[in-house]
Amino acid sequence: MKVKAYTLNSFAKCIEGGNPAGVVINADDLSEDNMKKVAGIIGFSETAFVMNSDLADFKVRFFTPNEEVDICGHATIATFSTLLSQGRIEPGKYFQETKAGVLSVELKEDLSIMMNQNTPSYYETICKQEIADSLNITTAEMSEELPIQIVSTGLRDILIPIKNIDMVNAIKPNFEKVSRISSKYNTIGYHIFTLESLNGSNAYCRNLAPLYGIPEESATGTSNGALACYLFKYGKIKSDNTNHIVIEQGYSMEKPSEIIVSLITEGKEVIEIKVGGKALNLSEIEVEI
Q1: Is 15 a residue whose pLDDT tops 90?
Q2: 146, CA 20 to 30 Å: which among 42, 215, 231, 286?
Q3: Which of 16, 32, 46, 67 is catalytic?
Q4: CATH class of residue range 2-116+278-288
Q5: CB 69 within 8 A of CB 62
Q6: Class of the domain covering 121-275
C-alpha cells in the first residue's frame, strides 16, 4: 500500500532551519496501525494525519515514531501549510479537532500560522539536583530566581532555567535518566532555556523528549507556549509585552528556528495563547507500508 505524504520544516528561520514534520492529508482510510507505520517510516519527530471531522474543519492525529500524542505544535504548522499548498484552504481562521480538544488555527496573509493552545496549567516544582544529575551539570548552572516546574498548554513539560547560552549549549544529557524522570512525572520531556538570546529574543532553548523517541527537537510549539506563560507568571515578560514573544530554538542542532507566542492576559492570568511561525521547504513523498 502506497501513501502520499508531504514533508516540510516548521518554525524555520531559514531553509535549513526549523523542525521537520510529515503530513498525510487524506488519512480517513488509514488504520491506527498504518498511521504508526507511516510515522515510523518517515522518521520525523511527528507526523500529522488529516481526516474529516464532525466537530471542526479537520480532525488531526499526531504520531511520533513510537506512539500517538495529543497535540503537536510544529506538525500543526506543517499541516495547515500543506493544506494551503494543496488548495484546500486560504488565509483565514479554522478549527482542528485533536485529542487535546478543538483548537483554532489562523492562517495569516503573510502565510504564518498561529494556533490556539489551552490556557496554562502550572504543576509541581522539581528538585534541582535531580534534574542536574540527569543533564550532567551542577545546580550552580541553573537560575537562582526561577523554579524548575511542570507546565502545560496541552502537553506537560518540565521547564528548566539555565543561566546562559553557553551553559545551555554545553549540556550533554544522560538520555536514560531524562526518560526515566520524564516518565516519573508523566511529562513529555525537558524544555531547557535561558533568558539570554542570540537575536534579541525573549529566550533561547533546547527541547529533549527521549521518552517519545526524540533525543532533541529543533522547534517545539507546545513547549514554548508553556514557556511563555511561565515567563509571564514569574514576571520575566511584562503585561504590555505579551503580544509578540519570540523564542529561539534549534541553534544547538544547526537548525535555526523561531517560535512566536502571543498571550492575552487579564491581571496575572493568561486567558488566551497562540503559538506560531512559518513552514518552508515543502516536498512530496510516497511511503510504502
Answers
A1: no
A2: 215
A3: 46
A4: alpha beta
A5: yes
A6: alpha beta
Give the C-alpha distances (Å, rounded to integers) separating 150 from 100, 158, 186, 226, 229.
17, 4, 10, 9, 12
Mean per-residue pLDDT, 98-114: 92
What grid cell was written down for 84?
494551503
The residues facing 102 across adjacent strands are: 97
**Long-range contacts at 61-67 (CB < 8 A, ≥ 24 apart):** 61/27, 61/35, 61/98, 61/99, 62/98, 63/35, 63/36, 63/38, 63/39, 64/39, 64/212, 64/213, 64/214, 65/39, 65/40, 65/213, 66/212, 66/213, 67/36, 67/212
d(CA 242, CA 260): 11
Nearest Cα to Cα of residue 148 among 163, 128, 165, 164: 128
Q: Tell me the three state secondary structure of residue 64.
A: coil
CA–CA separation, 72 vs 75, rounded Å? Answer: 5
Closest CA relative to residue 274, chosen from 86, 96, 106, 128 = 106
Determine contact, residues 73/220, Cβ cutoff 8 Å: yes
Q: What is the pLDDT of residues 225-242, one digit of tens each?
A: 999 999 999 999 998 889
So where are the chain's domains? 2-116+278-288, 121-275
Q: pLDDT tens, 153-190?
A: 989 999 999 999 999 999 999 999 999 999 999 999 99
For range 34-49, the mean pLDDT: 96
Question: 3-state class of 235 per DSSP?
Answer: coil
Say whether 121-275 and 2-116+278-288 share the same fold: yes
46 is catalytic: yes
